[in-house]
Amino acid sequence: MRALPLLLLLAACAAPGAAPPALRCDGSLTVRNRSGAEVEQLFVNGGADLLAPATLRPGAQRAVPAQRGPGNAVRVVFADGRAAEIAGLDSCETPGLDVLPGALQAVPPR
Known about the structure:
- The chain has 110 residues and is mainly β.
- 15% of the residues lie in helices and 37% in strands.
- Strands 3-1-6-7 form a 4-stranded mixed beta sheet, with no helix packed on it.
- Strand 6 and strand 7 form a beta hairpin.
- The relative contact order is 0.22.
């Protein structure tokens, strides 16, 4: 009977969704445009424009690759030439990113 509590604990740990966020992290960011303006360019960690040749329209969202874990820097450029940036983003702790008018805001998982 001593083995039963251990088996129950192991089963709970193996249940879907039981892993901590860092273990489920694939390194991607979900970018949601809540700015009301079209986003023309999106850069992660100084790489190439991840939207080209498309854009991110108001209300749209897109998953983009990022470095797994902390240290990500994201820059968006709006169609009117304005830009917004955020640095030090952890793709495992805050895999969501909202584009707001003139700012970017990290969003933790729901």
